[in-house]
Amino acid sequence: MKHHIFVPCWAAAFGVAAFFMPVAHAAEPAHLLAGYNAQAGANASPERGQKLFTTRQGRDWSCASCHGALPVQAGRHASTGKHIAALAPAFNAERFTDTAKTEKWFRRNCNDVIGRECSAGEKADVLAWLLSLKP
Ligand code: HEC
How far are the Cα atoms of 29, 81, 88, 122 from residue 127, in angstroms, in the given order? Predict the structure, then answer.
């Protein structure tokens, strides 16, 4: 009896996980932006995003220090010199397609550059600007 209950439950749980997994991890830049906008309760401003990206925020680096002022081509890590692939999605199809990766680097880089995490609105601004960069 137990066995009969267990099997369908397991199958259902697996089905649910398989359904939600792509939603949680694989993303599209435009959907990610919509999510940040919703979280911020406001619409993103590409101009504000560009400003945040290219100006220093009181620390040694700006975002542009590693990604370049126009991140349509590879940048160079400001301290290690390591190659960093283009950040704008139109120039690098892998960008902003993995929510966990995006969140990890936003957290780390905003802390390095601003000394705190970026707000949802700031992430939306930066992403909106990056999405506006076209070949
Ligand atoms: C000290 C160098 C450095 C600085 C400064 C820096 N980044 Fe990055 N950034 C990296 C590296 C290294 C990676 C990870 C390698 C990669 O994805 O190419 C990365 C990755 C990212 C990603 C992941 C994108 C994705 O989903 O693939 C985002 C978003 C990002 N950076 C935004 C920013 C923003 C916004 C700032 C300014 C607040 C900033 N970075 C400043 C080095 C830097």
Answer: 8, 24, 8, 9
Domain boundaries, the chain: 27-132
Best residue among 52, 56, 59, 66 to mutate for probing ligand 1, ranked by most atoms within 8 Å of CB: 66
Residue 105 alpha carbon to ligand 1 centre in Å: 5
Residue nearest to atom 31 of ligand 1 (CA): 105
pLDDT in tens, 28-68: 999 999 999 999 999 999 999 999 999 998 899 999 999 99
Burial status of residue 60 (CB atoms within 10 A of its CB: 0-12, 13-18, 19 or more): exposed
d(CA 16, CA 24): 12
Shortest-distance Cα residue to atom 37 of ligand 1: 63
Query: 27-132 belongs to which homologous superfamily?
Result: Cytochrome c-like domain (1.10.760.10)
Q: Whose CA is nearest to atom 15 of ligand 1?
A: 84
pTM given for the model: 0.85
C-alpha 113/C-alpha 54 separation (Å) is: 11
Query: How far from the centroid of its chain's Cα atoms is residue 132's Cα?
Result: 15
